[in-house]
Amino acid sequence: MDLSEINKVFTQDAVIKLCANPPEDQILSELPYSNRVVRIANSVVVKFGYYVKRNEAENQKRARELVDLTIVYIPKVYGFFQDADNVGYIVMEFVEGSLASSMEDDAQIDWLVNVVHHISTLPGTLPGPVGGGPATAVVFGDSNAPEFEDIIDLTDWFNARLIPDQKPLSCANSDLVLCHLDIAPQNVIWRLNQAPCLIDWASAGFYPRTFERCSQELLGGHLRFRTRFVAALTETMHYSTEETEHMQTVLAAWSNCQRYSL
Prior knowledge:
With 262 residues, the chain is α+β, with helices and mostly antiparallel strands. The protein has helices spanning 3-9, 12-20, 54-66, 106-119, 151-159, 210-218, 223-237, 241-256; strands at residues 27-30, 36-41, 44-49, 77-82, 88-93, 98-99, 177-179, 188-190, 197-198, 205-207.
């Protein structure tokens, strides 16, 4: 189906009805209090939920235009809308493949490192989501999602969250590049004899390349995968001393602005 056919067949009302009570075998992802992914046709899925926002759809759409799809595949986005209850719906391409609950294969780790290296060569001009708007990545902690006018604004945001004896961040020499910021086993579809498919672009944006590694330090779960992935990233990306200091500062600022409950 092409885009015109999809928009004609799957109107907003039709999508909402199909997602309301889908057959069990069409539910591809369902977690308590989280978003759901439902297959509504052979080649079409819908991701929907209160936390599904337009930014994610725009990030995914723009990232697909930028990357080499023979290195990393990204599903086509057919449309986004919100219903009267502010539930967001992303209508997108269904990609055949398998999800790994964990990644024990060195070849998989190496492939993902190659993906990160590739997207880190894709430059941006303004920090923040690819499609613009508030930055919601894990590196910004529990703070209200910030918006940045330029890299100086980004630098000032982190420095404002440091305590006096912590070394300030300086991004003057840092390039802004495409970052995914939520690489995890559940966000990679492994296709047979083809490039892996990277999904869930909600956190993505243009940031210093060190943010990709920082995000791995902060995301929960999959400790064995993250330990191996961070080690492989560090070996391949050859972070400079200045970049290593950047990462320490970003992680310190993140820690300083967490909301801890007693």
